[in-house]
Amino acid sequence: MSPDLDVAVVGAGIAGLTTAHELRRAGLDVRVFEERDHIGGRMHNFRHDGYTVDEGAEQISPHGYRATWELLGRLGVPLSDVPRIGSSVGIWRDGRARPGVADSSAVLRGAGLSPRARVDLARFLAWTASRRAEFDCDHPERTPLGAVTIREFTARYHRDLQDYLFQPVSGCFFGWDTARSAAAPMVSMLLSVGPAGSWRTYRDGMDLLARRLAEGLDVVTGHRVHQVVSERDHARLFLGDDIVTARSVVLCVPAPIAVRLHANAPEDELPYLSACTFTPTLKVSCLLDRPLAPSSREPMYILLTPEAEDPVLSGIIFDHVKHPGRAPAGKGLLSLTAAARTIPDLLKAPADEVVRRLVRAARRYVPGLEAACGRTFVHSFVHGLPEATPEALRRRARFMARAVRSVEYAGDWVMLRPASEGAVRAGALAASRVLSRLRHPPRTTARTTVRTGDGRRTA
User: Fold this and answer.
1) By CB count within 10 A, which of 145, 151, 260, 400 is most buried?
2) Average pLDDT for 307-330
3) What superfamily would CATH give domain 45-59+278-386?
4) 24-63: per-residue pLDDT in tens?
5) What is the distance between the alpha carbons of residues 416 and 389, in angstroms, rounded to a whole number?
6) Each residue of 416-451: pLDDT tens digit?
7) Structural domain boundaries of the chain?
8) 5-42+208-276+388-458 homologous superfamily
9) What does the pLDDT average to over 256-270?
């Protein structure tokens, strides 16, 4: 019996869409199956009354995002659609916002660090500069840091580097607990992306890349894959009452979901898949009747709120500062990001309670927030970001050296890089592995018909 498809991709996030895009370019018959009713995964956004609301959070750099920029160029996305943010990352300490975090001038300006801590920051920067070539984001398991946690690593330096730099950066951007996540992936990423002043965003919201990738692809939304069974030369997908066969399947979902879906995953894949744990993420988008921001000597688009200062929030994103088109003229939009240790309780709470707790915590940083706040939206992902634990780091090399099979994987967790660049790179890698296996000419016939979640039939 001839398979229904060359390749079935499970998941329409950035990794899945990149995988499908690359395989479709190679002439294969590809279909993407997505459980939700929209594409983009954690990089989805929506429009409401003139506001562009991001469900996740993303910025890209001219450095360290080579695969993303190559993909944007191939898709014909002009640089004007990826404008520079141009404002600072700040941190809250001792009652005020201090800009300059992640800038090259932090050693001189302080950025919330004490004078003694700045000396240690200079020492850290000099050490990483001397060994920069050993910090490769594609191979975080090979760095001189080994598998030490962030907290173990920062114990070598002044306490401020843990409390007012590494913890708030990892907590807000990655949702990490510094006692559980490895230092190597974080340091590798920080070195690759360069100073915050060069970072960019997507003009029309964080789903721009997803929308452009999906153009011309066969994407079925609202349809859940319940199980995948791999065979030697093909795989079967179980979708309710339907069974779809494909020469290859690529699971572009978080590792815990991939383990559950792949019913007969080979033994040599399971150690890494099981070690790739995720942290949940939760944030509240606040649509404001005016553009509020904390008092500061220069504009900030993110204010980090360290655990040492705040047990509820990890940071505030001022979306209307990140790009003015995110809110109507004269209005404001900001995102309140919950601290990692607070999220498990908040995930169980009603939406109005989540909003109340996060807005109440944010009042000290943004005076007038409650009065200016109109509509709010709560966004949560149980599998928010890959945790990059030491155990995952230790097991990654063997996973990456595994044989090419009928079921492959893609996602930022494959790269241990919680960012869209990690997803793009993983998607491109999965596509190359599939192509290396499907060497003979692609099939062009025998398509199957499946039902989408809204009853639509796709041939």
Assistant:
1) 145
2) 96
3) Protoporphyrinogen oxidase, mitochondrial; domain 2 (3.90.660.20)
4) 999 999 999 999 999 999 999 999 999 999 999 889 999 9
5) 9
6) 999 999 999 999 999 999 999 997 544 443 333 333
7) 5-42+208-276+388-458, 45-59+278-386, 99-194
8) FAD/NAD(P)-binding domain (3.50.50.60)
9) 97
Secondary structure (H, E, C), 322-391: HCHHHCCCCCEEEEEEECCCCHHHHHCCCHHHHHHHHHHHHCCCCCCHHHHEEEEEEEEEEEEEECCCHH
Structure token pair of residue 260: 């559950």
Q: What is the DSSP letter of 403?
A: P
What is the residue-wise DSSP string for 406-444?
A: SEEE-SHHHHT--SHHHHHHHHHHHHHHHHHH--SPPP-
The b/e string for 31-41 (b: 16+ C-beta within 10 A; e otherwise) is bbbbbbeebbb
**Is residue 191 very low, low, confident or very high in pLDDT (cuts 50, 70, 90)?**
very high
Mean pLDDT rounded to a whole number for the chain: 92
Task: Phi first, then psi: give them for residue 99, nearest 5 degrees.
Answer: -80, 170
Dist. CA 30–CA 83, nearest whole Å: 32
